């Protein structure tokens, strides 16, 4: 076993796939940031709101006001430098820190693909993605033809986890037996050309999409790994992600996954891509000659890097299953729901009102949420327990600072999950201002009156 592992670690492979992945990743991130900026979301998501929801343990992450534009600019420049392979190590570290900081500034923006970009950029810090076809290689007059095979396999493994875990998450009764939430979402796409009126209202199509999504996520990583099915699998990747992009507003994620899937192909495909890029550069009259060193890149700090990578993947394998530590229904309490590749499994709507009470006199008044939250923030807060608790503490602190005495905060909340009737969500007799956020189960969430079976 030890000899097999040692042999694998010492195995080398062509560096071209990692170089192409670096270019694709950097350019996609650059475009994503430009797109976010152009749509005015920096202003509406980060600067305009009076209050920002934070991740537990990261309350210290603050919005920089108008300087937030500068943070996005730094992230964009870093992404471009990653694509070029210019000062790569500094660039990828800068991108990871800036992008992750942006993600942590406002919890309402959480998406699985933002989390994916953060952990992928962290992984890229430790990979020699600049050793071939990069400005760094050109400037140092040193380009490596081969790199350790595990460096490319690590990206494949991360993509495998994302897909396979997303498939496992679909093994639940709502998705498979009720076609929820697709049965709610798809009819709204009735205006799509050709297929809208014909398919989107059909019950069989809702189930076909649900089961098709399950099988796609579970089996696509295996099909990509196996050489004989790889081309077919890549066509499936393109069709699936473009179709989901048409159906749902999920931003750049489909394109990121399509570009990322190229890493599974043999080096000869990536060498052709590099040759094509070189031709374009040559047409622009830019010199690209380097001295090619025909040996394998060897890590200088392998004894440090390999344990870091190992711990990284152990966490990726374990963290999605932390929901098993909680006793209540996952979709209802969402305890352990995030960071687990549960993609588009819920349609959850809520309505939550807050009452501020003087514990001595019992005098009270109700809060207008629109006085403190944007419509999007209020929507997200209304059905997510950790949001409700954080907002309750914000309200308690706010009214305490205004001079109110003996402040208590109570919430009256109703939530509907995946087409079910709305039901009480929060125990309205519990003073949320006295409750503290932690990893412990939230006993002030009322019991779910149904049962969702599955993983």
Low-confidence region ranges:
none
The neighbouring-strand order within the major sheet is 5-4-6-7
For the largest beta-sheet, the strand count, sense and barrel status come to: 4 strands, antiparallel
Query: How many discrete domains?
Result: 2
- Global geometry: globular
SS elements, strand count:
7
Report on this model:
By secondary structure, the protein is α+β, with helices and mostly antiparallel strands. The chain has 2 domains: 2-322, no CATH class; 347-434, no CATH class. 53% of the residues lie in helices and 9% in strands. The protein contains 19 helices and 7 strands. It has helices at residues 2-9, 16-38, 41-47, 68-84, 88-105, 112-124, 135-140, 149-169, 173-177, 182-185, 196-199, 203-225, 227-247, 253-260, 267-283, 302-318, 330-333, 375-381, 385-401; strands at 12-14, 143-148, 292-296, 348-358, 364-366, 407-417, 423-424. The strands form 2 sheets. It has a 4-stranded antiparallel sheet. A 3-stranded mixed sheet has the order 1-2-3. A hairpin with a 5-residue loop joins strand 6 and strand 7. The chain is globular, with a radius of gyration of 25 Å. The model has no long low-confidence stretch (mean pLDDT 92).
What is the fold's blueprint, element by element?
Layout: H1 2-9, E1 12-14, H2 16-38, H3 41-47, H4 68-84, H5 88-105, H6 112-124, H7 135-140, E2 143-148, H8 149-169, H9 173-177, H10 182-185, H11 196-199, H12 203-225, H13 227-247, H14 253-260, H15 267-283, E3 292-296, H16 302-318, H17 330-333, E4 348-358, E5 364-366, H18 375-381, H19 385-401, E6 407-417, E7 423-424
Parallel strand pairs: 2-3
Antiparallel strand pairs: 1-2, 4-5, 4-6, 6-7
């Amino acid at each position: 076993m030890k000899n097999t592992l040692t042999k694998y670690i010492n195995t080398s492979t062509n560096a071209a796939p990692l170089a192409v992945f670096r270019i694709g990743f950097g350019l996609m991130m650059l475009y994503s940031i430009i797109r976010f900026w152009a749509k005015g979301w920096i202003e509406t998501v980060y600067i305009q709101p009076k209050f920002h929801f934070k991740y537990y343990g990261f309350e210290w992450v603050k919005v920089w006001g108008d300087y937030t534009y500068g943070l996005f600019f730094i992230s964009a420049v870093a992404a471009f430098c990653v694509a070029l392979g210019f000062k790569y190590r500094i660039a990828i570290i800068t991108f990871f820190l800036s992008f992750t900081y942006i993600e942590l500034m406002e919890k309402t923006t959480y998406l699985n693909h933002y989390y994916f970009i953060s952990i992928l950029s962290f992984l890229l810090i430790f990979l020699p993605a600049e050793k071939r076809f990069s400005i760094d290689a050109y400037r140092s007059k040193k380009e490596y033809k081969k790199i350790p095979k595990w460096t490319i396999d690590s990206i494949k493994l991360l993509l495998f986890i994302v897909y396979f875990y997303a498939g496992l998450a679909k093994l639940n009764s709502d998705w498979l037996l009720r076609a929820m939430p697709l049965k709610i979402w798809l009819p709204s796409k009735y205006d799509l050309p050709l297929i809208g009126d014909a398919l989107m209202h059909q019950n069989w199509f809702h189930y076909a999409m649900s089961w098709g999504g399950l099988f796609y996520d579970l089996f696509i990583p295996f099909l990509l790994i196996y050489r004989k099915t790889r081309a077919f699998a890549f066509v499936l990747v393109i069709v699936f992600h473009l179709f989901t992009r048409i159906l749902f507003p999920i931003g750049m994620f489909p394109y990121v996954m399509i570009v990322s899937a190229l890493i599974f192909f043999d080096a000869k495909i990536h060498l052709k891509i590099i040759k094509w890029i070189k031709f374009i550069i040559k047409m622009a009259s830019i010199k690209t000659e380097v001295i090619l060193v025909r040996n394998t890149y060897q890590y200088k700090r392998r004894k440090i890097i390999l344990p870091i990578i190992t711990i990284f993947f152990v966490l990726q394998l374990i963290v999605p299953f932390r929901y098993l530590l909680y006793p209540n229904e996952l979709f209802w309490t969402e305890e352990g729901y995030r960071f687990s590749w549960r993609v588009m499994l819920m349609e959850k709507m809520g309505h939550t009102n807050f009452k501020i009470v003087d514990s001595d006199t019992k005098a009270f008044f109700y809060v207008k949420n629109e006085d403190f939250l944007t419509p999007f923030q209020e929507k997200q807060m209304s059905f997510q327990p950790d949001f409700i608790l954080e907002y309750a503490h914000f309200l308690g602190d706010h009214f305490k600072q205004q001079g109110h005495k003996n402040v208590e905060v109570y919430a009256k909340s109703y939530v509907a999950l995946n087409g079910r009737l709305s039901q009480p969500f929060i125990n309205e007799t519990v003073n949320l201002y006295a409750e503290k956020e932690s990893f412990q189960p939230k006993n002030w969430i009322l019991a779910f009156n149904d049962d969702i079976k599955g993983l």
